[in-house]
Structure of ATP-binding cassette domain-containing protein:
Amino acid sequence: MDTTRQGAAVNATGIGVEGPRGWAFRGVDISAEPGSLIAVQGPSGSGRTCLLLALTGRMRITEGTATVAGFPLPKRMGAVRGRTAIAHVPGVADLEPALTAGEHLQEQALLGHRLSGSLSGSLPWSRRYKDAARARIDTALAAVGLDPTTLPKGLRTPVRDLERLEALRLSLALAVMHGPRLLAVDDVDLKLSAAERALAWQLLRDLALAGTTVVAAGSDAPSDALIVRTAQAGTTGADGTGRRDAEGTAASGAQDTTGSTTQDTTAPGPNGPADTHEEEAAHAFAETGRA
């Protein structure tokens, strides 16, 4: 993993995604420098997953303008996908419960870029390839703080036997292995204790400090995170666009009490998606297939 690569700048103005069920989200404004930690916050069904997929080129935005790493969306979705990675997104970037941690890591290393040079050096059974894959795996594990010796059976531990925080670390290790400029992580706080949530956010902050831009959905973000909020389906601003008035009640309620930087909030249109996380995810996956 190339830890010296610069993160991706993210700039978005009034972006939204509309699908068969209406607006997943709309009216999102983001301005983030490379290496930023961006926290997407909002209730289930408010478009958080769709926003992550849109910013990584895996879902086509249908209104507004955006650039990620200098590439415009949706025109250069392929270029953005090649420079970004996703982790912990149910139904899109799932871990396989029956496979071991080591098998996941080996597979991800195999899917990475081939080594340059001779043909023999790029073959999976060559010594050079194996050494390079081992180095990438070790670097990725170190970056996310996953020590194989702490797992019940080391890297032979099946995913179903991992604790939730360990599974999150493994998912992140797979995502950062090939040096993405932007990393998107969903449900950072899913079924984690308060202490575990703090550890998870600290891990993401460390990745951002190392240079990778991180966009993560979850609550209890650290005070130095850039906050982007999504709203309940059916909530619209005074102008009917779904944006919130900066001086209105909604914007006042959106102010973060921890001192985090809060950017423009979002709200779906009147035909918004269902108000459950499962239905939002199904909507996102359908749109991802189209992308």
About this structure: The chain has two domains: 1-83+181-291, 98-179. DSSP finds nine helices and eleven strands in the chain. The first helix runs from residue 48 to 55. The first strand starts at residue 10 and ends at 19.
